[in-house]
Amino acid sequence: MAISKITWFFIVFGTVYFLESIGGFYMTSAVVFIEKQFQIPSRLSGTMVSAGDFAYIPVVIFTSYFGGKGNRARWIGAGCILISIANFMIASSNFLFPVEQANVTTHIPSALAHQIDRNLVNGDFNYTEHQWLEQLHPLIDPENKVVMNYEGDEKSDLLQKYIEYCHYHKGSDICARLEKEIAQKFPMTDAKMSNVRAMVALPYGFCHSMLNFVRSQHYACKKDQSTMGPFMMIFGGLLVLGVGRTMPFSLGLPLMDDNVKKQNLPLYFSFMFFVKILGPVIGLLVGGQLNKLYVDFNPPQGLTPLDPMWIGCWWLGFLIFGTLLFGPSVVLYFFPSDDLDINAPDELDDEGKVKPRKRLNLVDRHIKKDEQGNALMPETVMDKVNDFKETITNLMKNKIFVGAMFGRIIDVLAFKGYFVFQAKYLELQFGVPQYRIQRYIASTGIVGFACGVMLGSVSMKYFKLQGRKAAAWVAVCSLVAALISFANGTVGCKSVIGQIGDQIKVNGPVFDGCRDDCMCENVPLYPVCDVNGNAHYSPCHAGCAMGWKNYSIFDNAKANVDTLIFENCACVENKVKEVSRSYCRTDECEERFGRFFMHQAFGAIFGGLGVVPGMLIVLRAVPPEHRSVSLGFNGFLVSLLATLPSPIIWGKIIDMSCLLWQKACDASGSCSVYDTDELRVRLHVIYGCLRIFSLISDVWVWYWASGLKLIEEETPEEKEKEEAEKLNPKRKESIKEAAEKVEKTAYELDQLIDQRGS
């Protein structure tokens, strides 16, 4: 059986709608890595995330007004093409502003290249081939200053003693003579320079002054480095995305509403709600999988997703979703309008008459049209303005509407920014990699909220929630969700980042270690622990000599190990002078991590329980002729006062708990170490207090909701009348009118769900 063009239209539209819903939530899994890659602080990344709302707020009114009077399929297609372009723009920032690669162009000391070649590449730890240095030592250092001033292990070889001496006596004749002799005996080669580059590119540092000096020279501030380039590219992409996403939500549901048989309407609306839930879940799950990949598919040796400096392949998701969305969007934009089955054979009804051909109502069938079928526009601008002002004035006089709107603004202000930065908080608090966090958020938070919405719908019918009873239900659900958020403020542990933060609070933001000749100032964060579980900022700060116990980047046989072990660490206060990530204790954090998400699942369920009653209160509180305007005005204010500023405010709140900023030229980059205890308490107390504050509006609504009917109940007389009308030949008209009422309510309810989700 051939598929009709109308069916093809809904297949294309459903595909576009589904892909668009996935991409909207993917940004939350990418923002953590965007901060790390481009050294953007949370306060700026919060502004960046809000870019979509900067564009959404002024455009949504224009789109809903003019788009509804035009070819809605073309408007939706154009909007999704913009979303696809926005995804390409965001992904392009990775290529236009690539990650800094180690390409050492500074002077490489011959002594450093020789030591790496001797100790790490050739593995000549007995130094049998280098007795020449012992023989030349009296000529290079006649007064034996190198050995006399050495304070380390006496067993250390003579070359290491020279390197430490030259750290404290830069420019001395002894160091110049040493460099000259090594350069003559072991000349520099391309292979040796490549080995030094490999050591400089490692995501961690050793206690080696000469190697760390070369690293600091290479990564020194360059004049053309700036975070504004990638920030503006991503900000611009999100602006375009904000413009594009106004069209599927504001025009898609009415388009389906006008082209679906009334008896199938609940099925289609259920599908739309299912897509709204499934899209974000898939977006987070895909983000979790892509986060296992490194940003350039070639992670530095020894760096894993468990490390704080890991940068996931965030840009690939935007590229995939943009590519998948672009094709169906173009098809939708050029989809043939109206007479879709013009070439199909005529169909006859029971009386032998030709049935009217199926038509696709791409222009709203409820608006007034002229004789040619074109939409009639209001005549003057002043008429539109005066009518709009009168409607808004009436809405603002509605006590229930104002109270419910105020509560929604506070709730969204609390939730939106908290959700954007939740993954970052969980990584800091529990030391769990991002791909696991995204999986847990999708399976508990979003699914739990969806279950709550469904249970809330069933509860309304079962408990017959009306007026004050429904308002009390919403208030109680909000109170329980707020209390659970307070409970999560007590769920925490000492991750390795938390331990390093405690060290900063005691000693200040300077990690001197036990040796000042290591030059660890510019060494990146790579937390390790000794066998007792004590944390160190990096192997360099633990005083570890250059090299590994179980690993080597120059030996393929030892290149594949799960965890690195660093040995000969002078600052470790036990007999086993070793440090490793595997020595960090995680059992307590794993247990607390699971408890946090158990609380979140319950909080999401209770949050969802109050959604449907709360939205029906808003719908029933205003006159029928004002419902559409009330939904649009409500969404406008929520976007302006809540979704727009929320990520910016929460980004600033998170930065308030920063203990150590990474240096990015003359300014601070992203934060690397936080006070995790302060961050945990501050986040959940502020979030819980905002939710408690919104209860004021719930009490206000409860006070004024007396007698408010949310669901019309049938009386016995009405039931008898309904049975009698089943025999009435005019029953089709009655059913049609009832279906239109259900259709209109379902559409308005779904619009509120959209606004709640945004």
Automatic annotation (TrEMBL):
**Membrane protein topology class:** Multi-pass membrane protein
Output a single Gene Ontology CC term carried by this record: basolateral plasma membrane
Q: Which Pfam families match?
A: OATP
Q: What keywords were assigned to this record?
A: Disulfide bond, Ion transport, Membrane, Transmembrane, Transmembrane helix, Transport
- Keyword Kinase included in the entry's annotation: no
Span-the-membrane segments of this chain are 6-34, 46-67, 73-97, 231-253, 265-289, 309-335, 400-420, 440-458, 470-487, 601-619, 631-650
Q: Which Gene3D superfamilies match?
A: MFS general substrate transporter like domains
Q: Matching InterPro entries, A to Z?
A: Kazal_dom_sf, MFS_trans_sf, OATP
Q: Note whether Zinc occurs among the keywords.
A: no
Q: What is this protein called?
A: Solute carrier organic anion transporter family member
Which subcellular locations apply to this protein? Cell membrane
Q: Which family does it belong to?
A: Belongs to the organo anion transporter (TC 2.A.60) family.
A GO molecular function assigned to this protein is:
sodium-independent organic anion transmembrane transporter activity
User: Mainly resides where?
Assistant: membrane
According to its UniProt entry, one GO biological process term is: sodium-independent organic anion transport
**Encoding gene per record:** Cni-Y32F6B.1
The organism is: Caenorhabditis nigoni
